[in-house]
Amino acid sequence: MKRFVIFLAMIATVFVFAGCSSSDGDDNSGFSDRFMFVGDSVKVGTQVSVDNKFVGYVSKNGYLHAFHVGETTYGTNGNKATLKVEGHYNAFNNIVTDWGISPSTLKSKISTTPTIDEAANDGTYMVAYKNQGCANIISYGFKNNKLYIVMALSNPSDEDEILNYLKERYVFLPEEVQSYTWGGADALDEDKIKTLVLLKLDSSFKLDYMLQTYFESKELSSKSSSAKSMKNTMRRSVSAVLMK
To answer: Of all residues in the chain, what percent carry a pLDDT higher than 90?
Structure first.
């Protein structure tokens, strides 16, 4: 975790300097709301700044770059407009990571019938859906009636598609560690991180090799001692479903 925080700090520093430059005389008087895809860029002028540099940033030559999926504002001298960035990939069919919602609220957001919908004696609750985009199954874990962890199981052949999806939405460590594990977060600054994500190739519970993608609430997982136990419960439950 410490190394990942240092990595985020290095990236944040780069974008601070990228957004600082002397005036080149650009006229920024006509800002309008923009819709862009990750990787797009457009000339806006060097005096323009973006409120959330995780979503977009302005380079030293005055180009606005769409960096990650999200929504923020951009502008200068009090003249602001909305910047909305979408991704090219949708590996998990709009997976829900609205941390803290209840099981009933989750089910109201997903139109299909859950494959698993059960409570445990320890106060946890799990709801799972099969065949969601690249995922064979997506499982949602709750503690004290609050969503705090999500697991997606996928085939290894979908790794590139999933990584492209995640890279459009999270900052990742630039290397594979711990047996093909990638780790990421949804912000450049540690105090703004809401979601942690982990991608791991594993062979637990007779599932052969499958990609396990975990999304966790930074706040709720850090307060819960049951995160590891919940992951094990999820794997056992969904493996039973997939092996039928």
So the answer is: 48
